Description:
This protein is mostly helical. The chain folds into 2 domains: 3-175 and 292-321, HUPs (Rossmann fold); 195-286, Tyrosyl-Transfer RNA Synthetase (Orthogonal Bundle), CATH 1.10.240. It is built from 13 helices and 5 strands. α8 links the parallel β4 and β5. The longest helix has 30 residues, at 292-321. The protein is globular and about 70 Å long. Adenosine monophosphate is lined by residues 8-9, 17-18, 21-22, 143-144, 182-183, 192-195.
Amino acid sequence: MARIFSGIKPTGSVHLGNLLGALRNWVAMQSEHSAVYCVVDLHALTVPHDPDELRKATLSLSQMLIAVGIDPEQSTLFVQSHLHEHAECAWAMECTAAVGELRRMTQFKDKSDSSDFVSGGLFTYPALQTADILLYDTDQVPVGEDQRQHIELARDIAMRFNSRFGQTFVVPEAVIPATGARVMDLQHPENKMSKSEAGGQGTILLLDDPATIEKKFKRAVTDSETEIRFDPDTKPGVSNLLSILGAVTGQEPAAAASGLNRYGDLKAATAEAVIELLGPIQACYQELTADPAETSRLMTLGANKARTVASATMDRVRTNLGLLQR
Ligand code: AMP
Ligand code: TRP
């Protein structure tokens, strides 16, 4: 069984784009792979953050991942900082990566251009991500297109390390779902729905109540025509609604239009489908938040499973690097 690894940062609230673009795929992959999923809180430290917010977001995201269907018994689900191996391995990765390689990362360029404080951690972020992946003998990394460059870097680092220090790491590859829904903002359908827009009217949060979801869809931006047609270039708003409706009901976006005649009907149908999808997820999330002992048991279980693999890899890394046996 191929091993897969993926990670998600605990920043902001989880939204419909995360669910339809990534998390649903994580859930689907767990039955046919040996899956390791990580809440990457150390990555959240690379930009200015509020400690209380981070603590809450890490717990909430862990519970949300279980609620959307990640099975903590079948898969390995854990919080990155619960294992010291990630930070430890990241150092070895930083010493294997070249400054020039890190400087070429477009995510670093984008994020450093737009902030006044740029941490060293933001620059070495991809080395930590490489450590996350390589610690678990990962074959495949399911991610969005924006992460392709980071996974290429992880491959290069793994190969370089292996050739310098002997066979140590499995060389991973990215798997980018061709059909993964790209969910756009309901108010600005030319932009991706995002956490930074969260709280805004264009983002559906997984914890939004039915009335809020209805309201947000009702106010969704469409266009001045009346025809329901899937054409993202000229009709971004309507096409986004069709994409969402299609993704939730398991149809192609164009097919989701059938039987709908007015924009109001499309909005209502999409809202209803999303409310129906999120209902059981919200119920499961509420159950978990009401039972901290169970959440804590599941997180400990995940950390222990992860540690078994990560510590064996770290032993190899230490030995092959020439660090003196403890
Ligand atoms: P982020 O919220 O950027 O940390 O992303 C977490 C995961 O959700 C990544 O795998 C993204 O590719 C995915 N994702 C984020 N926003 C969207 C969106 N609007 N549509 C589809 N996938 C998304
Ligand atoms: N950088 C990824 C993102 O922004 C999150 C991440 C951290 C990750 N470590 C990972 C993804 C390892 C895949 C594998 O979405």
